[in-house]
Amino acid sequence: MTTQVLDDLAARWLAVWPDALAAWGRTSRMHAPVLHTEPCGMPSWAWYTTDDVEVHIDLTVVAERGIEDHALAVLAHEIGHHLLAPVDRLTSLKIAARVKVGLVDMDHLIGLVANLWCDLLINDRLQRRAGVDRASLAAAVGTPDADNVLGLLIGRTYEILWELPRGRLSGAGPASEEHAHLCARLVRAYARDPVGGAAGFARLLRGEIDPEWLRAPESTGSVGALGCGGDQGGAGGVPFGLASDPTLAAPATHPALDARVVGGTGGATPESATEGAVGGGGNGLEPAALHALLTALGSTTSAQQVAAAWYRERAAPHLVPFPVREGPTTSEQLLGGLDPWEVGDDLSTIDWSGTMAASPVVVPGMTTVQRAYLEDEQVKSRPRPVDLDLYLDSSGSMANPSVTAAPIALAGAVLALSALRSGARVQATTWSGSGQAIGTEGFTRDVDAVMAAVVAYIGGGTSFPLELLERTHLGADGKPPTTTGPTHIAVISDDGVSTMFRPEAGWRAGTMRTVGSDIATRALEAAGGGGSLVLRISPEGRHRIASMAGRYRAYAVQTDPDLVTFARDFSRATWGGGDHGRR
């Protein structure tokens, strides 16, 4: 096809864009679509990107499939991805998360099934309420192959929704009537709730279609005219609001058991939040599950990056409020007495009232005066928040923060992010056995660097990094301490914190002296901001640790939620304002 023909086709489709917007209401707004006249290599003729909020049309595929006259149906459908399902990146991932639950072990189908579900909702609304002829577009492209079980089911569902003759969209294939009717009722029941019905749709497909066919490569292929390219955005990280949703990992309810679909009061209710162990997580996604979801959708975000975003979001409700900083006080000018005005001074500074009062004869430099002004400066010094030197136990007895919800990492995130929010600097260190420590390069205000240290995992033995503690607060090898002001030392651990005080011989290469509580005690005095040991141990264990900890304050927490609650309350007392933790 020539370039001129494609350019003419682009002009025709662009002229239809206002009508496509009007199909969703007179107030609908969206910038014009990107009409490609060169092949894009995408799986369909149209797709939508949530990142750019943009519709793309590959006109070369449009011409190949013979749908040049269906611009309104195609464009209005893609606008529906912006206005109905999925709308944005967050909702897109929520739909995918619910689909993942329904598919159980078919992660390779998450993207396809999520897009088919969104397409069902959009197409049904356009066909029934907006007068957009999606059925003719589907018929123009052709019916699914007889062995395309998924395509046949979706096609028959559309026929039921739109009261079309059997076979117009599903062809002569053996589509399941019962399952198609159930799917159609599911679409109507969740017409305005894409996230709520996604798991049931996936559960229906997973339970009623042959698993061997679903696992086959052809299952991810085309479903005829029934699905567009879907959301092709999402190359970024984890949107805020995903990790804290308490319903995304709830069990999927089959549509046949869903009261919203089949009616009555005895049916099961879809995803419901239950109280979780860590931060009220309920049925929310854990870090590993969230990373698996993103990987299935083609994201290259690492497990550590996902975990950092997960804990950052979970910590957000527990952080100290943003400090209210007073603006710089401007100095006021106070009127003073009268000073002589001499030749050479600014003429505008002459006080004529004072000059004429002194003498009716004006003699410049002799009788002229000027008003003096006094400065009343009210500059208030702003207190500096106490810095945080944070140590998180990452021995084998601790959970891996990148895999499951780890209370110690969440508590560490609450402390570190609260300190950063108040304006303090943070040095975060995850430690395990001798010489095993991962952390920031000294004190920093880089949130990403701090969170990377918080979610790091070693899983080795247990030996507190005394050498780092000494280097930070006392200096070592002829170098001064790395701190620059009062610093609070916080250690989150269990009974492994005893290695911070237990004498150990020769912990530093080239020395044979015995060290232990001496280093910890002197570091606490030099830090000048106090020290806390937050320990997941029994009250009896706390007394044992307190007896060797000197002036460190030892706190025992009994449960995982208590650990997070303590971190929240402690952060607000230390960095939440007032005179706490300030100098």
UniProtKB/TrEMBL annotation:
InterPro entries: vWFA_dom_sf (IPR036465). It comes from the Bacteria. This is VWA domain-containing protein.
